[in-house]
Each structure stands twice: as C-alpha cells, then as structure tokens.
Automatic annotation (TrEMBL), chain A:
One of its GO terms (cellular component) is ATP-binding cassette (ABC) transporter complex. Its main location: membrane. It comes from the Bacteria. Coiled coil: none annotated. It comes from Sporolactobacillus inulinus CASD. The keyword Membrane applies. Forms a stable energy-coupling factor (ECF) transporter complex composed of 2 membrane-embedded substrate-binding proteins (S component), 2 ATP-binding proteins (A component) and 2 transmembrane proteins (T component). This is Energy-coupling factor transporter ATP-binding protein EcfA2. It is a peripheral membrane protein. The keyword Membrane applies. Residues 4-245 form the ABC transporter domain.
TrEMBL record, chain B:
Coiled coil: none annotated. One of its GO terms (cellular component) is plasma membrane. It comes from Sporolactobacillus inulinus CASD. The chain crosses the membrane at residues 26-53, 73-94, 106-129, 246-265. The keyword Transcription regulation does not apply. Pfam families: CbiQ. Keywords: Cell membrane, Membrane, Transmembrane, Transmembrane helix. It comes from the Bacteria. This is Transporter. InterPro entries: ABC/ECF_trnsptr_transmembrane (IPR003339), ECF_transporter_component (IPR051611). The keyword Transmembrane helix applies. The lineage of its organism: Bacteria, Bacillati, Bacillota, Bacilli, Bacillales.
C-alpha cells in the first residue's frame, strides 16, 4: 500500500471570480515508503499547487488525500499532527527564517511538536550536520549567512521534525554547483538514515536523473506521464512537446546515434553516459 | 485568501463605465454623492433608483456584486432609518408609551434607507470598474494644481502607486510565509491571547525582513534609472479625456438638474 496517495484531485483558485484558475484536474499519484519521486512540469503546470495538497495546506475541491490509509480531510483537526510527518520545503525556504540564531530557528518545528529540551538539542545538531553545517553555526545570526547557507538552515528546520515524507519545491534554485551538490548530498544522507520518502520538484532534468527513481510529469494541471526515470526520459519527443527537456548527457548520446554511431541512449546521468561512451570507444577501437 | 483582498474589487471589463477616464469617474462619483444627499422628494427618489439602475447596466457589473458591497452596512442603515421613524414629528399614525410613529417619520426613514443604499451601491461601481492604479493616477492629475502650493503631488502619487504595486506582492509573500510556518506546525487560532500574538511573530518578522529587502532593492533600481522626483516626468499612458467623458459629464449634470427639479415639484410629501 502506498504511504501517501492523492486520488483524483481537482483544485481551483479563486472560484467564481474573474481570476478563476483551474490549477489541477483529476490528478492522481502515490508515493511509497522510502521511494524518491521527481515531479516535473512546465512553469505554471501546477507542481507547487499539487505539493500543498500533500500536507493539507490546500483542500482539494474534489478528490482525496490518503496518508497511511486515512483520508486527511475526514478529521481536519488532526492535520496539524500529520504535517509533522510530511515535511514540506517551499521554494526559497530561506524566507521562513525568523529567529535570531540558527539553533532557535531550527528548533521552531520540533518545539511545535512538543519535543523536550534534550532531544531537541540532539535533533538540532543532527539536522545541522545533515545539511553539512557544523555546530559553530548554532549561535550565528541566520540573516548574516550566505544565501546557500540560509537555504540549508531552512531545510534543516524541516529535517529536524524527522518527516517520513520529505517534499522539496525546487530546493536547488539559485544555488551554485557546489551548493547544489552539498544540498543533494544532504538529502541522500537524510534518506539513507531515516528511510524517508522524498518528492522532488525540479526544473533541472540533471537533478531529477541524479536523484529520483520515478518521475511524474504534470502538464497544465494533469498528470501527463508517470513511470521510472528511464521510461520517462526515453520519451524525449513527448517531453519536448510539453515544454520540458531531457538531460544533457542523454542529448549527446541521442545526437551520436542520429549521426549513425551505435551507442545506447539509455543513460541519464553523466556517469552513465561516460560509461556508455567508454564502452563504445573500446568497441570502436577493436577492428 | 489575502490575494482576494488586495486586488480590490476591480472586475476587468470593457463596459462604458470601464472605459471612462478615472478623473471623470472620480468627479462624477463626487457629483453623485451630492446628488444623493440632495434627493428629498418621492419623485426624485424614484428617479435616483432609475439612475442607479442605468449606471449598473452601463458598468456591466452583476447586480449581485453591487449588493454584496452594500450588505455589510445594512445593519447600520436599518438602525439609522428606525431612529428617524421614531424621532421625526408629523401626523401620528401609531403610538405606544413614549414611542410614536408619524407619517413624516416613516417617509424620512424610508428615504434615508434608499438613499444610503444607493450611495454605497453607486460608489461601489467606481471601485468595480476602475483598477487601483488607474484611480491613483487619476487622483494625481486631479490634485496637480496643488503643486503650485508646493504640495509634493508627484512624490505622493509615486509612493501611492508603489504601495499599490507591492500590496499584492506582499500579500502573496504573507500567504507563502504562513504556509511555510504551518508546514512547521504553526497554529494561529488557538490558545490564550498572548499565545496567539506570539504565534504571529514567525510570520510578521520574515514579512518585515522581505519588505525591507525589497525596499532597498527598489531604491537602488530607481536610483540606477536616474529618478529625480516628479519634475518634468511624463507618462507612458497619459490620461486623455475623450468624447465619451464629455458625454458622461453632460449626462450626470442633466441628471443632477433633474433631481433638483423633481425636488421642487409639489408632491404629497
Ligand atoms: N494563489 C493563486 N491564485 C490564483 N492562481 C494561482 C495561485 N497560485 C498559482 N496560481 C496559478 O495556478 C497555476 C499553477 O501554479 P503553480 O504555482 O502550481 O505552478 P508551478 O508548476 O509550481 O510553476 P513553477 O514551475 O513556475 O513554480 C498557474 O497558472 C498559476 O498562475
Ligand atoms: Mg512552483
């Protein structure tokens, strides 16, 4: 059984006004425990709207959100306790920082959960370490950190709640390559340690290919494709037709193939492409 | 939720009323208000209702929306009307202890009711058919003569339009921050008053931080484009009075005169 499942979600912004916008149409998707799912789609396709349904920030006009077999909106008073299990990291999460020290800000979520001081300290240190910052940051003023450091502090604030499902909306937007690597290492580290499921919203096909097992493609508010990474990126034409892209390394291989070289095109990360090219070169050397 | 507040009530459209110059609409609204206050007789009251109906049709705003604008103040209107019913002297129709209802009182109360509703409904039309930006720039031009008195009209209107421009942005930001803190378990509507106030710090502080950041960025951007105050600035879309506007003014003045005439015709009340 899926850990969390969205069933036939419909959502409309400002219904009944001139600004009415049907943002989601009959969207269904499921996330299993420990799975990592990528959510991609053109700008305005409804990704951010969709992830707000996972933890009950938006109430669907019709359809169900089922977490561990329970309908979220059957008992609206319990949604708050479910939010602690489904961590949501918004686009530009550094905007949510408000305390004067990094430690206090990370403590905000766990304190809302009612966690005791001792465990709190442990959690703060652990999540700070997880995002690759050391304990010297604890007493620092978050507003004096660099953008990338602030981002990691904000994410640590969500990790400290130890969510079973972690949802991130374009966490790497605006970070330099190094910051991006550090961020994804942190996420991998958290997954390995906690076994949490991760939903990653991203515009970067490289990040998606690198990090997730399964991809859900949204197009104008409905699910266009849903499947393993390989089967999604194999449909390059369909992706391009809905305004998306395929990873650069896949493009290189497709280009070579079009020129008549017999390379396999099922490589989505740089490492896979490298291996395939080396294999091809070795075979080509042989007479 | 907050977004609905900040768009104002503006309903985009292309009706006759939408296309009038904001200056015309501001002045005509003022004229209409005076007209409502001058309405005294039964005949001019009926005329006023007819006018309101014409204006609603010209604005192509659903009547439902116009009455939604009136609804919040209906209790106030009713109380005012009731007080009038009991306090105005005239032929006594009914009395009990110190309470008495007179024919004049009944008429005054009723007139007041209709006039106030018409007033609010009429004024709501301008907000339904004019965007806040258009209103601001109309106001600027109307106040332009005050520049002679060294009143900083352009600066004030620049401030006003920046405020209007950033209201929706800040409202969106507010929504986002509220959601982010809710996702971390924030609760806003429970507990003691002190706790409720405390619950808002995690929202207000980031909002201020971002407002300040935006203000500094905007100041830099404005200075980089050599802004030096209102002296000699022209507009991208200068307001222009058209034939439509003159026609509207003539119509309103005629209607105003009709009200005065209807007031003076001898009637039962
Ligand atoms: N608060 C809102 N009110 C009205 N419409 C909205 C609101 N938020 C989003 N929308 C609209 O809903 C649609 C989906 O928006 P959403 O933010 O979910 O897109 P997205 O896939 O996250 O895009 P991006 O990749 O740019 O972040 C868009 O057309 C957007 O204009
Ligand atoms: Mg988005």
């Amino acid at each position: 059984m899926a850990l969390i499942e969205l069933k036939n979600i419909n959502y409309c912004y400002s219904p009944g006004t001139a600004f009415e916008k049907h943002a989601l149409r009959d969207v269904s998707m499921a996330v299993d425990a420990g799975e990592s799912v990528g959510l991609i789609g053109h700008t305005g396709s409804g990704k951010s709207t969709l992830i707000r349904h996972f933890n009950g920030l938006l109430r669907p006009n019709s359809g169900q959100v089922v977490y561990q077999g329970n309908d979220l909106w059957k008992k609206p008073n319990e949604i708050r306790s479910i939010r602690f299990q489904i961590g949501l990291v918004f686009q530009y999460p550094e905007a949510q920082i408000f305390e004067d020290t990094v430690g206090k800000d990370i403590a905000y979520g766990p304190r809302n959960m009612g966690i005791g001081q001792e465990e709190m300290n442990a959690r703060i240190r652990e999540s700070l370490q997880c995002v690759g910052l050391d304990n010297s940051y604890l007493e620092r003023n978050p507003f004096r950190l660099s953008g990338g450091e602030m981002r990691r502090v904000a994410i640590a604030g969500v990790l400290a709640m130890r969510p079973k499902v972690l949802i991130l909306d374009e966490p790497a937007a605006g970070l330099d390559p190094e910051g991006r690597h550090a961020l994804f290492d942190a996420l991998r580290h958290y997954r390995r340690k906690s076994g949490a499921a991760v939903v990653l919203v991203s515009h970067s096909m490289e990040d998606i290919a690198d990090f997730v097992d399964r991809v859900v493609v949204l197009d104008q508010g409905s699910v266009a494709l849903d499947g393993p990474v390989a089967s999604i990126f194999a449909q390059a034409e369909k992706l391009v037709s809905i305004g998306l892209d395929i990873p650069q390394s896949t493009k290189v291989l497709l280009g070579l193939k079009a020129k008549g070289y017999s390379v396999k095109t099922e490589a989505y990360t740089v490492e896979q492409a490298e291996q395939e090219l080396l294999r091809f070169l070795k075979e080509a050397d042989r007479p | 939720m907050t977004r609905d507040l900040t768009v104002g009530q503006f309903i985009p459209g292309h009706s006759l009323m939408h296309r009038l110059d904001p200056r015309t609409k501001l002045m005509l609204t003022f004229l209409f208000i005076i007209q409502v206050f001058l309405t005294k007789s039964a005949l001019s009251l009926i005329f006023l209702l007819l006018l309101l109906w014409i204006y609603i049709v010209c604005a192509q705003v659903p009547a439902r929306k116009v009455f939604r604008a009136v609804r919040p103040i209906i209790p106030v209107i009713i109380v005012t009307a009731l007080l009038n019913i009991f306090y105005v002297s005239g032929h006594v129709l009914w009395h009990y202890a110190f309470l008495r209802i007179t024919d004049q009182g009944l008429f005054t109360g009723f007139t007041l009711l209709v006039r106030l509703i018409t007033l609010i409904a009429g004024c709501s039309l301008i907000t339904y058919t004019t965007s806040l930006n258009a209103l601001a720039s109309g106001l600027e031009q109307l106040l332009a003569p005050l520049k002679r008195l060294h009143f900083p009209v352009s600066e004030l209107s620049m401030t006003l339009s920046i405020t209007l421009r950033f209201l929706p942005t800040l409202a969106e930001e507010l929504d986002r921050i509220i959601e982010a803190q809710k996702a971390r378990g924030a609760q806003f509507a429970t507990g003691t008053i002190l706790n409720r106030i405390r619950a808002f710090f995690p929202v207000i502080l980031p909002l201020f931080m971002s407002a300040f950041r935006r203000a500094f960025e905007l100041t830099n951007a404005i200075e980089c484009r050599c802004y030096h105050g209102g002296e000699g600035r022209t507009k991208l879309h200068p307001l222009k009075l058209g034939r439509r506007d003159y026609a509207a003014v003539i119509f309103f003045l005629a209607a105003f005169a009709m009200t005065l005439i209807f007031n003076s015709i001898r009637q039962p009340f």
